Amino acid sequence: MEFFERKKREQEGQKQLLRATTSTNASALRASYLVANRIAKAKKPFTIGEELILPAAKDICRELLGEAAVKKVAQVPLSASTVTRRIEDIAEDIETQLLERIKKSLWFAIQVDESTDIDNKAILLVYVRYLYQEDVHEDMLCALLLPTNTTAAELFKSLNDYMSGKLNWSFCVSVCTDGAAAMTGRLSGLTTQIKEVAPECESTHCVIHREMLASRTMPYELHSVLKDVVKVINLIKAHALSRLFEQLCEEMDAEHKRLLL
Q: What is the pLDDT of residues 126-178, one digit of tens each?
């Protein structure tokens, strides 16, 4: 009888250990995702988790909570490869949630612009505006790599390949672009090709570029003031006058003390 009672106690102890281990692993996994999310938002190198955050968390726990807490914190995986996978998972989940929101909207509108990154690679930035919970929301939809040319045909191909199977073109009611020929070409521009697959779509010109166009025909009085301001800013930023400018702002009790690029 004692043998069977001892075996029963051992089995119950193993179950409790398994539940505790499973709970700890789940908590460590959630903590890993939370830290990876903060690293991504702060735009820090992925190695910072293993080299700085985890050792700092261990030091804090050791001083405040003891070695038992340090052992729990040490179970959080924060290597560079792990952080990379976590951020990719978070990005995929965010994209899935965004697409589900857009699908529930009656209509959606997009804004596209071709640009280059720091590696001089051409990319197509796409923003989307849609209805969600009786309010208008605006989010970044995607950034598409353009491996070859930046012609209208290549722009539409990249955008159409992304939209196919994810969103329905028939619900797109507006597309906003700049005034580049590849975007607004009357015969084969990007907006023209989008209107062929989205009959209800209207095209608009980006308001930022409208401001730029309007500044070219600015009255002389305003243009001369703007020209002088640009000269002053360029002079301060190009020389060591930025430190003197900061001291001047401090003496004047100005709200801002630096010229931002």
A: 999 999 988 999 999 998 888 877 788 888 899 999 998 889 998 999 999 88
Cα of 236 vs its chain's centroid, Å: 32
Angular region, 133: left φ>0, alpha ψ -120 to 50, beta rest:
left
The total of other beta-carbon atoms located within 10 Å of residue 249's CB is 15
Please work out, in degrees rounded to the nearest 5, the angle formed at the alpha carbon of residue 75 by the alpha carbons of 72 and 81: 155
Residues 6+ apart with CB under 8 A from 29: 77
Its pTM stands at: 0.66
Separation of alpha carbons 253 and 248, rounded Å:
9
Query: What 8-state DSSP symbol labels residue 8?
Result: H
Q: What is the dihedral sign for C-alpha 175, 180, 186, 192? A: negative
In three-state secondary structure terms, 201 is coil
Q: How many of the other CB atoms lie within 10 Å of CB of 220?
A: 7
Q: CA 226, CA 144: separation in Å to the nearest integer?
A: 36
β-pair type (135-145, 122-132): antiparallel
Determine contact, residues 196/176, Cβ cutoff 8 Å.
Answer: no
1-21 pLDDT, tens digit per residue, is 888 888 787 777 666 655 544
Cα–Cα dist 54/40, whole Å: 16
CA 227 to chain CA centroid, nearest Å: 35
Count of C-beta atoms within a 10 Å radius of residue 135: 7
In whole angstroms, how far apart are CA 99 and each of 10, 23, 92, 93?
50, 32, 11, 10
